[in-house]
Design a protein that fits this description.
- This protein is α/β, with parallel strands linked by helices and 540 residues long.
- It is built from 20 helices and 10 strands.
- The strands form 3 sheets. Strands 3, 4, 5, 6, 7 and 8 form a 6-stranded mixed β-sheet that branches.
- It is elongated, with a radius of gyration of 33 Å.
Length: 540
């Protein structure tokens, strides 16, 4: 009996079943990947809503270490050093802050005397003071606003004609037509941008508490009008950034209501730029409503060197600078995955690599190594770790789901590989862009208060003033006193050298005249302002 046809039929059925099984296996694999992807998203959402938003990674296998956070946050820094290998801590590039203490406050001595009867002894003699019982109290002196009535002398000869009448020249002012002194303008700038007070809050405060009636529109106009006299200072600071070969840049959004050709709800960009030599560091902010690459090319025209960025495509090909990408951004992409997976898997291994890299940076900082020494240390210790990391990344890349958070983290490290290892080329470079990110936070926090700018000129004024304030703070100068010195001296500046004397790193050593006479006009600068300019205060 011939069964050839039956065998052929069974063979075809077998092949069909195998193909169907293969199809089902592929679908099961797709469903498994989709499940893991959705699970990953759910865990990340739960972590975002309920978890701690911190750079610090706590090993789930040793959770008792986190109990100290519940007791007292002051132990956080100490805990970080005690966490096991699975714990990763990025030590910020923060300078030691010498916070002001009570001994730095002005001191007024108050003598509480005895009555004449109390000083009279029973023997008839008068008692002498042998000591004082001392008690220190913190006092608050409320802000004082006053009207300065300037009276210019007008002199004339009693025997001559009216042509002999002479009037004392008006003192030079930074804004001659404005009804405000330099100290009030400084108060306005610092209140708006350093203390982050919206103008409508400041308007209400001045009116209700001090009886000073100045509308928010007027105050906004004064802030804008100050741009012109302060522009030379800003340009010199910008030149300092362009002339050096290491800079950094980051960006955030800002909404401007009355921007020509754009809807009110459209958001523009504000760039935070940090650069200059180590002893002449500058922080500037620039408002931009044009195309990103065009703006960056124009602003950084003439710059030739390294630029720290966060890895955004905005900077790719936009300048001639060599981009140095941020390892903190790469690390942050693995950190939530490691927490969601309870410290297991690929993300945990990636965190270990970053931990070792930042440990080396902390070593260089603790030893206060020079750029040349830091360069050699990185070649010796950091480069082998980065080589192993990149080899490992290439190995696991085919095994991860591209659209998952882990896949995106791995892909990020591969895409920006050259930029992430570029900090090895020069000891002056940083491992991340955290320094600039720290400088953009004041703008982000202030934006939560004022929400938007009404006009383009308002946005530009905001950026200019904030840049001067942050640069002053970077050099340990109180912004209020710095602004008073600037506004008092700028009207007398005639040359570039005059303006250069007013830069933050020069003004503390520049001999500011306490009292001077220019063109017959007597001007005076408060000695306390000079003292405060020469006193370093690290205010963040």
């Amino acid at each position: 009996m011939d069964h050839t046809a039956d065998i052929a039929q069974l063979t075809d059925q077998n092949q069909a079943l195998k193909a169907e099984i293969t199809l089902y296996k592929a679908r099961c694999e797709q469903y498994a990947q989709a499940y893991e992807y959705l699970k990953e998203q759910m865990l990340e959402m739960k972590r975002h809503i309920f978890g701690k938003r911190s750079e610090r990674y706590i090993d789930p296998e040793n959770p008792q270490l986190s109990l100290f956070d519940e007791v007292n946050s002051a132990f956080a820094a100490a805990d970080n050093e005690k966490i096991a290998d699975e714990t990763t801590q990025i030590v910020a590039h923060s300078r030691k802050k010498t916070a002001k203490s009570e001994k730095d406050l002005p001191r007024r001595i108050e003598i509480i005397t005895l009555s004449d009867n109390d000083k009279l002894c029973a023997c008839g003699l008068c008692k002498t003071i042998i000591r004082y019982e001392t008690k220190e109290l913190i006092n608050y002196v409320e802000e004082v606003f006053e009207i300065v009535e300037q009276r210019r002398e007008v002199a004339a000869c009693p025997k001559c004609c009216d042509s002999s009448v002479i009037t004392a020249p008006a003192p030079l002012q930074v804004l001659p037509k404005v009804k405000a002194t330099e100290s009030f303008l400084a108060f306005l700038v610092v209140s708006k941008l350093a203390d982050r007070q919206p103008l409508y809050h400041l308007e209400h405060k001045l009116s209700q508490r001090y009886g000073v009636d100045i509308s928010r529109q007027t105050m906004a106009r004064w802030l804008i009008d100050l741009m012109q006299p302060l522009r030379p200072i800003y340009n010199l600071l910008k030149d300092n950034v362009i002339d050096y070969d290491v800079a950094s840049c980051d960006a955030t959004t800002l909404q401007v209501l009355k921007e020509p050709g754009r809807a009110a709800e459209t958001k523009s960009q504000v760039y935070c730029i940090r650069g200059g030599t180590p002893k002449q560091q500058v922080v500037l902010y620039e408002y931009n409503a044009i195309e990103h690459k065009q703006f960056l090319q124009e602003w950084f025209s003439g710059f030739n060197g390294y630029m720290h960025v966060d890895g955004g495509n905005v900077f790719d090909g936009s300048t001639d600078a060599v981009l140095v990408n941020c390892n903190a951004h790469a690390r942050r992409k693995f950190e939530p995955i490691a927490k969601a997976n309870k410290g297991k898997g690929i993300a945990k291994e990636a965190m270990r690599y970053f931990k070792e890299l930042y440990k080396i940076e902390r070593e260089a900082k603790d030893k206060q190594l020079s750029p040349e020494q830091r360069y050699q240390l990185r070649l010796e210790k950091s480069k082998p770790i980065l080589d192993k990391f990149n080899t490992w990344i290439d190995t696991i890349y085919p095994t991860v789901l591209p659209q998952s958070a882990l896949g995106k983290a791995v892909s990020y490290c591969i895409t920006y590989r050259n930029g992430l290892i570029r900090y090895l080329e020069d000891g002056r470079l940083e491992i991340d862009n955290n320094l600039t990110e720290q400088e953009i936070k004041p703008l982000v926090i202030a934006r939560k208060n004022f929400l938007f700018c009404d006009s383009v000129s308002g946005a530009q004024a905001l950026c200019l003033h904030l840049g001067l304030i942050r640069t002053a703070k970077l050099h340990g100068i109180d912004p209020y006193n710095y602004y008073i010195a600037l506004l008092k001296r700028i009207p007398h500046c005639k040359t570039v050298e005059d303006y250069e004397k007013l830069l933050p790193w020069n003004i503390v050593s520049y001999t500011i005249p306490i009292s001077t006479t220019i063109n017959g006009v007597h001007t005076k600068l408060d000695p306390q302002i000079i003292d405060s300019l020469r006193t370093t205060t690290h205010t963040s």
